[in-house]
Amino acid sequence: MVADRGLSGAAAAAYIHPGAEGAAGGVILPLTVSASLMVGTLTAADFAPSGSITTFAQAVAAIKAGSTYFNIHTAANGGGEIRGQIVAKGNAHFASLAGFQEVPSVATAATGHGWVLVSTDGSTLTSLFAHSALSGPPAPH
Fold this sequence. Notes:
The protein is mainly beta. It contains one helix and nine strands; from the N terminus they run βββαββββββ.
């Protein structure tokens, strides 16, 4: 695997947060940090309430409504280094991540793309996340 370059340091964490474009929110779902391609399945057991989102079902509804975002955090940018709003693309929900979308904006060459697939019954989320231009391999949180 080619080493990723571009973030200010190794990815320390990756999450799904609630929040409209330009607004920051708390963590509602953790993503498994690994080298790009990060893949995982999330259930109600992974959910953490934040603000008005107090249940996994509300988190799923927020993802479907476009009011959540992916975020990769680094040690230098603890609030997030690259971010992308999750929007619907057919039955999947997609985000493109970049540093300028962070609140406040972060200068970085790193980018990413993420998808969330919601199961028909809304009981599981499968995430697929790719990033590039990291300065080193992601670090577990």
